[in-house]
Amino acid sequence: QLQTLDPGAVWASNAPGVYASDLKALLNGARVVQDESSQTVSNRGSTQVVTPYDAQSTNVQDILTMISFYRFSGGAEYVGLSQNQLRHMEISDTIRLNHAVLIGHLDVAAGGLRLNDQQITPAGQQTLVRLFLPVDRRPAAAPAQTREDLERNPSLNSTDNN
């Protein structure tokens, strides 16, 4: 489920329901369905269901997202379409290169169209954006030692460099 980030709002990566490993599941609409009647040792009564890609969709934000993460979603095997004409828009590798990608739309026109010196007013218009944000993937710092930790293990408090 895609969500709206309101102007001035702060996004937190540690918020409930935010998981970095869920991108493919988000792209494929995958979800786990519990089914106690089919419980076996291997599936424990659950099955993963993947939503088929809708090649007839006209939702431009969904189309841009799938074009952007074509390989990450499973490529032609999942989408059922070739990527030849739009290959230059593929950005799946940016995730592995320590970048987050924010895809959204603006309520502002990016440009206009004139024909014979007259402004053409479109029936509808959207400005889509892809923002690439660098991510610093440092390991989490060790928690600060408590007084009890230091009392149990005095070597933790040692400042000797011998």
Topology of this structure?
Blueprint: H1 23-28, E1 31-34, E2 46-49, H2 60-68, H3 70-73, H4 76-79, H5 93-96, E3 99-106, E4 113-115, E5 118-120, E6 127-134, H6 147-152
Structure description:
With 162 residues, the protein is an alpha+beta fold. It contains six helices and six strands, in the order αββααααββββα. The strands form three sheets. Strands 1-2 form a two-stranded antiparallel ribbon. A two-stranded antiparallel sheet has the order 3-6. A two-stranded antiparallel ribbon has the order 4-5.
Largest sheet: 2 strands, antiparallel
Poorly predicted ranges: none
Number of continuous helical runs: 6
Helicity level, as a percent range?
10-25%
How would you describe this structure in keywords?
two-stranded antiparallel ribbon; two-stranded antiparallel sheet; 20% helix; 162 residues; alpha+beta
Quick structural summary:
With 162 residues, the chain is α+β, with helices and mostly antiparallel strands. It has helices at 23-28, 60-68, 70-73, 76-79, 93-96, 147-152, and strands at 31-34, 46-49, 99-106, 113-115, 118-120, 127-134. The radius of gyration is 24 Å and the shape is extended.
